[in-house]
Write a structure and sequence with these properties.
globular; mainly alpha
């Protein structure tokens, strides 16, 4: 009995759940609410968990389903995202090149359609295999691969359209390495 409880350890997966929830909701507060609701649903339905399943994938699947349920129940999500986007425009960009670049990549990622964003997040950020990600989203593997391909193509197109290619810094030199001339 004790062994089956250890396999149902959700605390070790909170980081993945929170990252995925932020990717879906685009809002830290909404993400925390989503994680809490998903954990409550998982706890209520823990008797349906099969010990031979992966707990992380099961939890991510529950989280995804809770998100979909919330979208169907309320369209106020769109209004909150609009307000968050308006607020983001008033924030000054950081001065560091890498922080600016990261903000640009994040902005492009968040502008992807939610289906493509969810698929790309599960595979690229969470490290799930295509099969695991497809199961979490309850879609065929081919559909997942198509969404990932379209997401990557859209990100590449955004990079080319906006001219946001990473800057090549040619004035840097290796210190303490073989290229040191001193």
């Amino acid at each position: 009995m004790r062994q089956s409880k250890s396999r149902f350890d959700v605390l070790g997966h909170l980081g993945s759940l929170r990252r995925y929830a932020r990717s879906l909701t685009r809002d830290d507060t909404d993400a925390e609410d989503l994680v809490q609701e998903a954990l409550m649903r998982a706890y209520e339905r823990r008797s349906t968990f099969k010990p031979d399943r992966n707990v992380r994938n099961w939890l991510l699947s529950i989280l995804h389903n809770v998100f979909i349920d919330r979208l169907r129940a309320s369209r106020s999500e769109t209004e909150r995202n609009s307000r968050a986007a308006e607020m983001a425009d008033t924030i000054a960009e950081p001065g560091q090149d890498h922080a600016v670049r990261l903000a640009q990549v994040r902005e492009n990622f968040m502008s992807l359609p939610k289906e493509q964003r969810a698929a790309l997040h599960l595979v690229a950020v969470e490290g799930l295999s295509y099969g695991e990600a497809a199961a979490a989203l309850d879609i065929p593997v081919g559909t997942l691969m198509s969404r990932i391909s379209r997401a990557r193509a859209a990100l590449r197109a955004m990079e080319e359209t906006l001219g946001r290619r990473p800057p090549v810094d040619t004035h840097l030199r290796v210190v303490g390495g073989e290229n040191e001339s001193d």
